[in-house]
Write a structure and sequence with these properties.
7-stranded mixed sheet, 9 helices, 12 strands
């Protein structure tokens, strides 16, 4: 639920003393009888790009793999009583014996739990702008996947939300200016009309997208977010990463989050990683229909709802242990 790399951490500690070991325990039930909700770190939320690359018979680049992306795909149990706050840290401990180490080691898991009730949770209204790459490299299955994702996105929005649609190639256009989501039919028609052309100027697209988001004083209780759909191959305009990342940092300070949805095996993982490290930033790889359904049907309300940012954890190993 947080939308920034925060707290899910694995530490490998080598012990110089005897150790009996431990085990991970299941998350306890809250007073309602339902299990305490887990919370996951933000950042790069999956390893789908690496998985697809392997499936295509290629070798993925190291930056395609992220710790938070791997852990976000699994429910890791942790110790402790029912969560009584929005964010609670949960420790876990397990003995690990490595064949090349004479002394035992331990994995320390720092998990996160929340008292948010997922059965009754409702997100805040959104001030949302979708910024879509329609450059030539998006032709075929990529732009089809984006259209399907946008259709599902519109179905998740209601009259309390505002939505804008920006398209970019070598230039950028506002196809749908920011407006309350009152007529979904018109938005679906606009999405179907997206066609590919030109090259890629992400920065100009983001500039127009951020321009469609209301200023903090005019936003009311709505949260604000940009959704960027691209194969992350900028090749025109200002292509240095600091140009659009600097833009994203400036608006992050005004409370506008940025989510990157990557499509296609030629997606640049470095761009997604750097965006995901921004406050309010996260990234997902849309490798197929199942992933699109998961992100926009099951998880959408959560991925646009951070519950904590700027969290820091300090770890001091006990005597006889060292962090490796």
């Amino acid at each position: 639920m947080p939308n920034r790399p925060l707290a899910l951490t694995l530490l490998l500690l080598a012990s110089c003393t005897s150790y009996d070991g431990g085990s991970f325990e299941a998350a306890p039930l809250a007073a309602t009888g339902r299990a305490t909700a887990g919370a996951t770190s933000g950042g790069a939320q999956d390893v789908g790009l690496a998985r697809e690359t392997v499936g295509a018979g290629q070798v993925p680049r190291p930056e395609s793999f992220t710790a938070e992306g791997l852990f976000s795909e699994h429910d890791l149990p942790a110790t402790g009583g029912p969560a009584d706050r929005v964010l609670v840290l949960r420790p876990g401990l397990a003995l690990l014996r490595l064949p090349d180490r004479p002394v035992p080691s331990a994995i320390v898991q720092v998990g996160m739990a929340s008292n948010v009730d997922l059965e009754t949770f409702r997100r805040r209204p959104l001030d949302l702008a979708a910024v879509v790459d329609r450059s030539g490299s998006m032709a075929g299955g990529k732009i089809d996947a984006v259209r399907r994702a946008l259709h599902r996105l519109v179905e998740r929005l209601g009259p309390d939300d505002r939505f804008a649609l920006v398209l970019f190639d070598s230039a950028a256009d506002v196809l749908v200016s920011s407006r309350p989501v009152e007529s979904a039919g018109e938005l679906h028609e606009a999405i179907d009309a997206i066609e590919v052309r030109g090259s890629t100027d992400i920065e100009e697209g983001l500039c127009l997208g951020y321009g469609e988001i209301a200023a903090p004083a005019d936003r009311g209780d709505r949260s604000a977010r940009i959704l960027l759909f691209t194969d992350a191959q900028p090749n025109t305009g200002r292509t240095d990463p600091e140009s659009f990342l600097g833009l994203a940092r400036r608006f992050a300070d005004e409370g506008v989050g940025l989510t990157v949805f990557g499509v296609g095996l030629d997606m640049g993982p470095e761009l997604a990683r750097r965006v995901s490290e921004l406050e309010g930033g996260n990234s997902f790889y849309l490798e197929g229909e199942e992933r699109i359904a998961t992100v926009f049907d099951r998880d959408f309300d959560l991925l646009v709802t951070p519950i904590a940012t700027r969290l820091s954890i300090s770890v001091t190993p006990a005597p006889g242990f060292r962090t490796v």
